[in-house]
Each structure stands twice: as structure tokens, then as C-alpha cells.
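Sat 14:20. Reprocessing the chain from the morning session after the first attempt stalled halfway. Input below, unchanged.
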Amino acid sequence: MILVDTSVLLAAANRDEREHEACAQLVQTHRGALLVSPLVAAEVCYMLASRSGPEREAQFLDDFGRGVVILARLSAGDTDRMAALVRQYADLELGGTDASVIALAERLRLREVATLDHRHFRTVRPAHCDTFELLPE
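Finished this time. C-alpha cells:
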């Protein structure tokens, strides 16, 4: 199972993105579950709707029903950790969505994160490991 950030899902959906091929291949061929924070899902829905229209947003939502993507549940502990991360990395402007991915990774003890946001995910020091393994490679 890997956690998937907004950037990978948007690049996979948009053929004009520079990283489209790598992201689409990762999303289509990864053997484990693709886990998405509810904040990532909301961000992707908003961006797909505003950039590509409601049909593309609906197609993304269909992926949940087909089991292609799994929606994670945030716990109270996760939201406490998110707030701590946003405060700790205020100078980095980490934000709640990325903090939710990190909090989930820590709770689930996942090292693999699918993201193009290397600035945030290489800088943050997760509590459960030294660094994240960022995909696609």
C-alpha cells in the first residue's frame, strides 16, 4: 500500500503534465492499494472539476467505487499530528493536505509516498522512519 498525494493523481489524469507517463504508469500498475487522504481527495476533485470539468471529476470518484483508490479515515490523533506538523513546518508552508498524508503515513507506518512534491516530503522528518521513499522514481 502506498499513500498518493494530489500531484501524482493530477499528473496521471492530465496528458499535458510533464510527469504524466510516470504517474499514470504508477497509478495503473502499482500492485498494492492506493490510499488517499480525504483532504487529497477533496483537493483532486476541486482541481479536476475546475480544470477538466465535472465528467473528469466523476471519473476520479468512480475509482473509489471500483476499489482502484481507497479513501483513508483520519483519526483525532491524525488531526492533532497534522496541526503539529503545520506549526512545526510553518516556514515551509506545509499545509493541511500534505500534513494529512504525513500523519497517515506515520500512523500506518508506511514509507512509500507517491508525490511530485519533493520539497515538502524530502524536508519533513517523519516520526516512524528517517525519510520517505518517494514515487515515481
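The two ends are 16 Å apart (CA to CA).
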